[in-house]
Amino acid sequence: MTSPPAAPPAYTPHVAPQADHADKARTFMQRVADLRAWLFLAFLILGFEVWSRISFGGTFLFNPFNIQSIAVFAVAPLLLATGQTFVIISGGIDLSLGFIMGLAAVVAAHVINWLTPGMGFLPAVLLGAVVAVAVAAIPGFINGLLVAFLKVPPFIGTLGMFGVARGVAFLLAGGTTVPVKNEVFAALGNGKFHGVPYIIIVTAVFVLLMHYLLGQTRFGQHNYAIGANAQAARRAGINLKWHLLRLYILSGMCAGLAGVLYAARFSAGAAQAGEPLLLDAVAAVVIGGASLFGGSGTILGTVAGAFVIAVIQYGLVFINVEPFWQFISVGVVIIISVLIDQAQRRFSGGRQSE
Amino acid sequence: MSDMTPIGQTPIGEPLLEVRNLSKNFGPVQALNDLTMMVRAGEVVALAGDNGAGKTTLIKAISGVYQPSSGEILLKGQKVSFNSPQEARDIGIETIYQDLALADNLTIGANIFLGREPMRKAFGFLPVLDRAKMAEAAKSTMALLDFHVSRLDAPVSNFSGGQRQAVAIGRAVYWNAQILIMDEPTAALGVPEQRKVIQLIHQLKAQGRGVIFISHNLQDIFAVADRIVVLRRGVQAGERRISETTHDEVVKLMVGG
């Protein structure tokens, strides 16, 4: 290495002290903004706790039944939101996830019913789950082809797949729900391990895995880069098409897992299982701090976002408020988080002065 | 900086890049006609010319975006040809694009390593991004360019235009680019920032790299370049040593006076 020539002194760090101070304030504000979903969650829980103590003289948060119900409630939207987080960070969106989930639920139900007599309970469940997730990867693969190779805008491509997956799921289900006759599958959906429902354990492990994938691997790093500047990513030698293809397959498989867990919980596969969850999943991602313009977001933020929605929905029922207030509250929270996101952008957009 | 092989294998002043009789036509349009030029190690060559003079075609041919219709390109005396910008980059010809170079949401280190991120094993088995290595490389590379940044964990969107330009150049330097092609590197910057970039180019020169520098700003050209090659309608209108020419003469060459 040739040593750098002596530095002309004019440009060296004579502005360092103020810059450092401003940096610290900025960094602090950025941290707060990044954590806003968790702050929301804390405020919500605190609010319900206070309300609950005043009106019922009992606790909201420290009632294990409440916590468990909220967590079980959050499982499916969280799984959809996990896949959606990756897609939104890349600058896309996946509107087909809700019906991919329904498709996977129906496929899981059929395959398990079909295999159980021949294979026994457990092997049928395992194989059925694998097949359902693999089938969920197919619409994901097609989404990826459309977006990556045929340059269809993600909004339109996945909207098309929304319709296709919906139709196929209803056709497979014969227009009705498909009950599952398998004890092990029902136990997976409703049983507990040391008091913790299996589906929560499965979800937690899966979400941790996705957190690792997004935060610690090249795939995740490239995903952020593509969302911020696809051109720069391509120039840096990242294979955009291959990345996007894998991305949409991944998000389809997240929905597939949600479908399997849904079918386990209700011992039935239903094509419309994920229908109301799609927008909740997008909301969870946005509340969790991701920008719909791409380039930012985290899995842990999305977890908080999913819990914010679940706590609002469950909490309002708990304190006996008319259920329609749920829509209003979730809507307000979404708007507030987008406003915070924009304020933060304006704040950190001011570039560090020389 | 273990990934870097020592630079300056080509002694300063020796030919680094040679372009011989290069032509490029798009159908009947002759964008570049029989152009010959050379860049020596440690030399800054400015390309000047009016819009449509062929500057962009020339750098795109050198950086692998276009395949020339005829003529040849030699790097360190060896004939080279590229099918893609990636191939040009792999042998040390890097183009610094003004706006399109960085992922704003990533750190300096992550940008330097974008597409070739180093990994380490966490707990002895789990492959994870080696952020420490990226930050370390960012720090030493930026120091090499005489940019001292304290916040290695901040996204590059937090930095100024000149610093971002330095990050893009730093990436090229880290990956051992021998020839840096800079297209209007000062166009979007304020005056103090422009001066910083000019300083950066001086650093690259001192390290024995070759720089091809496109600018409309004659003041910048005279501040940094050793030679100027003027293009007009796809042909070389003239070549001058900066020390032996004037603004007026260059303008005359550009407009064909």
UniProtKB/TrEMBL annotation, chain A:
**Domain of life where this protein originates:** Bacteria
Q: What is this protein called?
A: Autoinducer 2 import system permease protein LsrD
Q: What does it do?
A: Part of the ABC transporter complex LsrABCD involved in autoinducer 2 (AI-2) import. Probably responsible for the translocation of the substrate across the membrane.
GO MF assignments: transmembrane transporter activity
Places the protein is found: Cell membrane
Q: What high-level taxonomic lineage is stated for the organism? A: Bacteria, Pseudomonadati, Pseudomonadota, Alphaproteobacteria, Rhodobacterales
One GO cellular component this record assigns the protein to is: plasma membrane
Which Pfam family, any one, appears in the UniProt record? BPD_transp_2
Topology versus the membrane: Multi-pass membrane protein
Q: Which UniProt keywords apply?
A: Cell inner membrane, Cell membrane, Membrane, Transmembrane, Transmembrane helix, Transport
Residues that span the membrane, as ranges: 35-54, 66-88, 95-115, 121-148, 155-175, 195-214, 244-264, 276-293, 300-319, 325-343
Q: Which InterPro entries match?
A: ABC_transp_permease (IPR001851)
Can you state the subunit structure given in the record? The complex is composed of two ATP-binding proteins (LsrA), two transmembrane proteins (LsrC and LsrD) and a solute-binding protein (LsrB).
Automatic annotation (TrEMBL), chain B:
Q: Which CDD domains match?
A: ABC_Carb_Monos_I
| Membrane topology type | Peripheral membrane protein
Give yes or no: UniProt keyword Cell membrane: yes
Which superkingdom heads the taxonomic lineage of this protein's source?
Answer: Bacteria
Q: What is its main location?
A: membrane
Cross-referenced Pfam families: ABC_tran (PF00005)
Q: Where in the cell does this protein reside?
A: Cell membrane
MF terms from GO for this chain are: ATP binding; ATP hydrolysis activity
Where does the ABC transporter domain lie? 17-253
Sorted alphabetically, which keywords does the UniProt record give?
Answer: ATP-binding, Cell membrane, Membrane, Nucleotide-binding, Repeat, Sugar transport, Translocase, Transport
InterPro entries (UniProt xref): AAA+_ATPase (IPR003593), ABC_carbohydrate_import_ATPase (IPR050107), ABC_transporter-like_ATP-bd (IPR003439), ABC_transporter-like_CS (IPR017871), P-loop_NTPase (IPR027417)
Q: Name one GO cellular component term.
A: plasma membrane
Q: What protein name does the entry list?
A: ABC transporter ATP-binding protein
